[in-house]
Give the backbone structure.
Amino acid sequence: MAKSSKRTAAAARDPLMGFRAAPKIRARIVRWAEDQPDHPSLPDAVHQLVELGLGRSAAKKVRTPSTRSANAARAAELASKTIDTQSSQDATNAERETRKQKLLRGPRSFQQVRKDR
């Protein structure tokens, strides 16, 4: 996890809260933070998870075009890996690649409404 050297204005004015977490919970928070594009520090990760749990994160978080493209690229990568694990080993490499591309593009009716294209 990346350590943030800057403190936000909110961190300076808002009261400090703390809690005890079992090692398994702390490990899950750390793993979650490592999977985030911005690699938040442990306190920032806890803060983001609390906001997610309270349902406020979506309203506060502004998604920039670069965040959207990074998320789209990550989703495409995950989809590609999943398709690779599920593809038929009886087919040729070219046939598997063709099938994979068709799945990643999706149905024509969906291609018109996709925001990543």
In short: Residues 2-6 have pLDDT under 50 and may be disordered.
